[in-house]
């Protein structure tokens, strides 16, 4: 009996140890989200909108030349990781993406990182981190309100708006499964329906549908367009380029595509 007791204790200890090791190497979606929030807590306490990120770059940026069609790409990591100079060579396109951001953070910095740079057009790609809850739980209605507020500020400053659809995600890899679990496909579809409807009622807004071009037969982000199930790879960005170019041209012309 004593041997069985020792063996039982060992098995229990081994089970807990194994579970702890798995937890430390492969976090659950909830653990991954909490780790992200913890890692950003101090920074967001001191600068929730992350205004410091582009403050110096904005100060150094010259006013657009006469007749120049400056475009601001405004968003989260999908924008932040997009090397605009490589994909749009020679174009006066400026990247103002910040990884991990949500629409309330973007709304805070909209004046500094968009309005005061005097673009003709702003391309807004956001929403996926709101759905994930990066800065706390968000209702779809609240995300929509933040989008509407950005559009209204842009309109008041004679800036045309391109609203990009929230992109699909997939669960084809271990990393992708975490991102996928944090981002409800139903909320992505609901937000995209709202964005499309908002643009239909606003003559100064254009909709660019990345989702439709990048989704597979299962309703997920095509495997070949991403490495982690969330962020586009080079092939993914190449799909996006002609779509956003068409949208920008339409916005500049004041016509729907």
User: Using DSSP, what is the number of strands?
Assistant: 5
Taking Cα atoms only, what radius of gyration do you get, to the nearest Å? Answer: 21 Å
Low-pLDDT runs of 5+ residues are 1-23
Q: Roughly what fraction of the amino acids lie in strands?
A: 5-15%
Strand order of the largest sheet: 2-1-3-4-5
Structural class: alpha/beta
Overall description:
- The protein is an alpha/beta fold.
- The protein has a five-stranded parallel β-sheet with strand order 2-1-3-4-5, with helices on both faces.
- The longest helix is centred in the first third of the chain and has 24 residues, at 2-25.
- The chain is built from 13 helices and five strands.
- It has a single domain, classed as Rossmann fold, CATH 3.40.50.
- Helix 2 crosses helix 10 and helix 9 runs parallel beside helix 11 (185-200).
């Amino acid at each position: 009996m004593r041997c069985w007791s020792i063996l039982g204790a060992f098995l229990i200890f081994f089970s807990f140890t194994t579970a702890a090791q798995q937890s430390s190497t492969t976090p659950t979606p909830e653990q991954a989200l909490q780790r992200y929030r913890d890692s950003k807590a101090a920074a967001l306490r001191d600068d929730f909108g992350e205004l410091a990120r582009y403050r110096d770059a904005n100060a150094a940026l010259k006013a657009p030349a006469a007749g120049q069609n400056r475009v601001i790409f405004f968003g989260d990591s999908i924008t932040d990781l997009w090397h605009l100079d490589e994909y749009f060579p020679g174009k006066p396109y400026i990247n103002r993406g910040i990884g991990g951001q949500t629409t309330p953070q973007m709304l805070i910095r909209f004046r500094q990182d968009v309005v005061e740079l005097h673009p003709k057009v702003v391309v807004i790609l956001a929403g996926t981190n709101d759905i994930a809850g990066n800065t706390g739980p968000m209702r779809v209605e609240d995300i929509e309100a933040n989008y509407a507020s950005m559009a209204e500020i842009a309109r008041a400053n004679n800036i045309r708006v391109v609203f990009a659809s929230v992109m699909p995600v997939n669960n084809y890899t271990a990393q992708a499964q975490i991102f996928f679990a944090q981002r409800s496909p139903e909320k992505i579809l609901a937000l995209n329906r709202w964005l499309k409807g908002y643009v239909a009622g606003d003559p100064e807004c254009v909709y660019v549908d990345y989702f439709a071009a990048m989704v597979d037969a299962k309703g997920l982000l095509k495997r070949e367009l991403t490495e982690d199930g969330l962020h586009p790879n080079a092939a993914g960005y190449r799909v996006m380029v002609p779509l956003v170019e068409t949208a920008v041209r339409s916005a500049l012309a004041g016509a729907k595509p």
